[in-house]
Specification:
This protein has about 280 residues and is α/β, with parallel strands linked by helices. The protein has a single domain, classed as Rossmann fold (3-Layer(aba) Sandwich), CATH 3.40.50. The chain has 10 helices and 12 strands. A hairpin with a 7-residue loop joins strand 4 and strand 5. Helix 2 crosses helix 4. It is globular and about 55 Å long.
């Protein structure tokens, strides 16, 4: 888990609002699986849960299939296939083979396509045909380390079925035009809905930013002269989907969401939307 400081804003917000909560580590989840999750009505991720083992993925998938609710409050989540050495459980293994092929002409070194500890295929979960879009509804699309941007509401945000999410939010109100992470709620590393890569077809897109700097590259691409098509792909999505089991996923697709929570003493529209979703998820 990265961005520990950003996650502390989330913990502080939970404390201020009086939400009872436990903190579970990636290691706990890997070893204890869905049995650890199923005692909780809602699971909330931190701001950057990038490294996922197969056991962690399967735990989330079973939790949702059995009616659990997930709030993905980060960006670039579930990107790298990660292994825990079964002989030395304090050691993990990550081999970034498929993304490096996209940015170099060197090819892949012998042996890099498999983990030495478990034999699993290395690289990203997208390369493993099991992308994060199938889990969170959104997947990593861009990174940039300059000015973040706010979300603007999209037509689906006015659907009566999801009115609870936007209670207290104005129709034309920018969401997160502030924050301690690059000055806005969508920035650093961001995720969007991509139906072609596995976002469930029922995934609703509630809000998106516009106007990201050309410094936001598309995934791991080399520096480029942005085309209009590329510019349109460089965005985060506030998204939501439900599962027949009663499970549901709310995703923000940005590492800068949690650093926007403490603005104005935690009294702002990012904090309000987060509270709206958590209260509904935890009481229905």
């Amino acid at each position: 888990m990265a961005r520990f400081g950003a996650d502390m804003y989330l913990i502080n917000w939970l404390d201020r609002k009086g939400f009872d909560h436990d903190v579970v580590t990636d290691e706990d989840l890997h070893h204890e699986g869905v049995e650890l999750l199923k005692s909780y009505r809602v699971i909330i991720t931190g701001s950057h849960p990038e490294y996922f083992t197969l056991a962690m993925r399967r735990a989330f998938e079973r939790y949702l299939a059995e009616g659990g609710r997930l709030m993905y409050l980060g960006g670039n989540g579930c990107w790298w296939v990660t292994s825990v050495d079964p002989v030395r459980p304090h050691a993990i293994e990550v081999r970034k083979q498929d993304s490096w092929k996209a940015i170099t002409t060197l090819g892949v070194e012998a042996g890099e396509e498999r983990h030495s500890t478990t034999g699993e295929r290395s690289g990203s979960w997208r390369g493993a045909r099991n992308g994060r879009e199938t889990l969170f509804g959104v997947g990593y699309t861009s990174q940039g380390f300059c000015q973040a941007r706010p979300y603007s509401r999209q037509p689906a945000s006015f659907d009566p079925r999801v009115a609870f999410i936007f209670e207290g939010i104005g129709e034309d109100e920018l969401i997160g035009d502030f924050g301690l992470g690059l000055g806005g709620a969508t920035g650093d590393e961001i995720d969007r809905v991509n139906y072609a890569l596995g976002s469930p077809p029922e995934t609703m897109i509630f809000a998106s930013p516009s106007g990201h700097s050309g410094q936001y590259c598309l995934n791991f691409s080399l520096p480029y002269q942005p085309t209009e098509e590329i510019k349109a792909s460089v965005r985060a999505n506030l998204a939501y989907y439900e599962i027949d089991s009663g499970g549901a996923v709310f995703s923000v697709g940005s590492m800068c969401w949690c650093p926007s929570l403490p603005h104005h003493g935690y009294d702002n529209n990012v904090a309000r939307i987060t509270e709206n979703v958590l209260r509904r998820f935890s009481t229905t």
